[in-house]
Amino acid sequence: MHSGDEHHAGLDPSRGTELCSVVETMFSLEHIVAATADAAFADRLEKVAYNALPAAFTADMCGHQYHQQANQVLVSRAKRNWTNSGPDSNLFGLEPNFGCCLANMHQGWPKFAANLWMGTKDDGLAAIAYAPSEVTGVVRGGVQVTVVEETDYPFRQDIRLTVNPQRPAAFPLDLRIPGWASGATVRVNGQLVAGLKAGTFHKIERRWHPGDTVEIVFPMGVRISHWWHDSVAVERGPLIYALKIGERWSKVTERAQASDWAVEPTTPWNYALVLDTALPGNSLKVEERTVRQYPFSSEGAPVVLTARARRLPGWTLVDDSAGPVPTGPVSSAEPIEAVDLIPYGSAKLRVTAFPVAE
Predict the structure, then answer these.
(1) Of 194, 215, 313, 350, most Cβ neighbours within 10 A?
(2) Where residue 211 sits, what CATH number does that domain have?
């Protein structure tokens, strides 16, 4: 997401992004994909939906932030470097700062679900974004078809579709192959499909029969992207990974189930990653855990990456936010430690844009 605390706010990962902007960007991207059939916009849609959207509210969705930060190491009532917004903007609560996000936040998931699948101009179906789902539509020849999608995506790489037309029918099924999914495979009834290309929609034109299966594998290798002050972010599949920081939640305003909350860190946050930037997969260990009721919570994160890092004692708070990221590569005499990275949406306190240690 772009930073935007009422105005575009630059590249510093401690600047804020409004929850309204997240939800409305998703809705815009859904319309853009429908208009253009460009897979790159669907890639961005998934990235926003599976990272920035759940990051902005509590696991049970009873509290949300007006502004989230990519590097968010303290949630508190404080005057921060916002353009216009007030000191409550960073709290998790009923309507911190202003009530617009309270109205908008509940539109994100339903509209995303409604746009996971779309019809195509040649009377087929297109998988726009991936999630556990079921779609029923009318395809070529007026035949009704239901597709059931079983998956733990975005936390897992495997997706299984079961295609059930009312009767055998010929129609196209367009599958989005994410731009990051090099080496993706698709099998129809066990037979390998050729010609897949990352960053495109792959059309499977055939005669479908009730019970036909499509098995998709999107290999989720670890990769890094480069950001402000030569910082790096760790990515895997459609998910961004952030430092898991211990959280101490305290009520600022008592309001039954919709209280306002501050969150303080109970563990250090000022780390630089010790990383092989050319082959980041060699520097991080991936552990897949059970997908539970609240995957977008610190305790329920279904994937944990273990990284090596050194603390940077000089990297401290500035105006109640993480100070500017030290421009890397940075030197540190602190010992190497093992730290955990969890999905961005699961981490309510986090560092996402890391300096790299020498």
Answers:
(1) 350
(2) 2.60.40
| Backbone φ and ψ of 111, nearest 5° | -70, -35
Looking at the structure of the chain, the number of domains it has is 1
CA distance 202 to 345: 29
Residues 6+ apart with CB under 8 A from 62: 257, 258
- Domain interval for residue 126: 119-217
pLDDT at 5: 83
**Backbone dihedral region for residue 71 (phi beyond 0: left; psi -120 to 50: alpha; all else: beta):** beta
The pLDDT tens digits for 263-304 are 999 999 999 999 998 899 899 999 999 999 999 999 999 999
Report H helices in the chain. Answer: 19-36, 39-47, 53-55, 100-104, 108-114
What's the CA gap between 346 and 102, in Å, rounded? 20
Q: Which residues pair with 225 in a beta bridge?
A: 233
Task: Please state the separation of Cα 193 from the chain's center in Å.
Answer: 28
pTM value surpassing 0.85: yes
173 three-class SS: strand
CB neighbour burial string for 136-165, b if at least 16 within 10 angstroms, e if fewer: ebebeeebebebebebbbbbbbebebebbb
